[in-house]
């Protein structure tokens, strides 16, 4: 009984210390998230980490405690005066607790957060969104703004870039094919549209059209934080590590000026 009391006290103290350290990490932001749906994932991680920290401490402490407390001196086994082969109460408690935790995690945050994210994709909630067609080819991201007649958005160096207005819903239409060559669309490869600062990614599959909805919530740019970029997260060939492009989250006024500039550049290229 003495060993059990010592173990429980150690477990409680170390769990409190671990939760305190986790709280400090949360306060200093474990992730750099600037988009609405990304905060859902961040809250889910924090919830799971909070609940699983005592479980992690229990398992690690149990291994270390038994290794030290019941270590045989000089490597010679010593027969214990008290040995228990089976403890049905402990088995039922441990299995029941594990089952309850898994059911809880399935209901929340898994199911509840997925329902929240899927409901945000309903057409009725996405009227008037900014639509950005994203084309993935080996090894380039191409951005088209059909609402403004922009066929390929580029910066002043002629490089592809993604410009988004802050606090406006964005609908990404994702496709994988090469618009500059005529060939079977199914002959492409799978890419993965990933903006680390948004906390979400979506596979871009040849022959399929996929969608992602997001709402940037603060002004940011690749120049100030490298997490604000589009990065392919699916190995797609030798050029995969360099399949990235900068992202700029700007004010509404600046976005309007950028649209006019893109339209001017496109008109000059077509003349």
TrEMBL record:
Residues 127-261 form the Cytochrome oxidase subunit II copper A binding domain. It is found in: Membrane. It holds the Pfam family COX2. Its EC number is 7.1.1.9. It catalyses: 4 Fe(II)-[cytochrome c] + O2 + 8 H(+)(in) = 4 Fe(III)-[cytochrome c] + 2 H2O + 4 H(+)(out). Keywords: Copper, Electron transport, Membrane, Metal-binding, Translocase, Transmembrane, Transmembrane helix, Transport. It is a multi-pass membrane protein. GO terms for molecular function: copper ion binding; cytochrome-c oxidase activity. GO terms for biological process: ATP synthesis coupled electron transport. Subunits I and II form the functional core of the enzyme complex. Electrons originating in cytochrome c are transferred via heme a and Cu(A) to the binuclear center formed by heme a3 and Cu(B). PANTHER family: CYTOCHROME C OXIDASE SUBUNIT 2, CYTOCHROME C OXIDASE, SUBUNIT II. This is cytochrome-c oxidase.
């Amino acid at each position: 009984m003495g060993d059990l009391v010592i173990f429980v006290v150690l477990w409680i103290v170390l769990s409190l210390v671990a939760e305190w350290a986790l709280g400090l990490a949360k306060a200093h932001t474990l992730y750099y998230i600037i988009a609405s749906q990304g905060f859902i994932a961040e809250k889910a991680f924090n919830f799971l980490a909070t609940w699983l920290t005592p479980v992690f401490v229990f398992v690690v402490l149990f291994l270390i405690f038994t290794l030290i407390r019941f270590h045989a001196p000089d490597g010679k086994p010593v027969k214990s005066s008290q040995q228990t082969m089976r403890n049905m109460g402990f088995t039922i408690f441990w299995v029941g607790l594990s089952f309850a935790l898994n059911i809880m995690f399935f209901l929340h945050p898994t199911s509840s957060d997925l329902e929240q994210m899927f409901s945000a994709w309903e057409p009725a909630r996405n009227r008037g969104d900014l639509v950005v067609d994203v084309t993935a080819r080996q090894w380039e991201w191409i951005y088209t703004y059909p609402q403004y007649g922009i066929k390929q958005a580029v910066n002043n160096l002629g490089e592809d870039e993604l410009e988004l207005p802050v606090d406006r819903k964005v609908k990404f239409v994702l496709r994988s094919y090469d618009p500059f060559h005529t060939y079977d669309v199914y002959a492409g490869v799978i890419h993965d549209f990933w903006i680390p600062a948004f906390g979400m990614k979506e596979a871009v599959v040849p022959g399929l059209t996929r969608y992602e909805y997001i709402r940037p919530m603060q002004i940011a740019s690749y120049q100030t934080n490298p997490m604000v970029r589009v990065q392919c997260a699916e190995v797609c060939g030798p050029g995969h590590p360099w399949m990235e492009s900068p992202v700029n989250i700007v004010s509404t006024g600046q976005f309007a000026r950028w649209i006019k500039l893109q339209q001017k550049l496109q008109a000059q290229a077509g003349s």
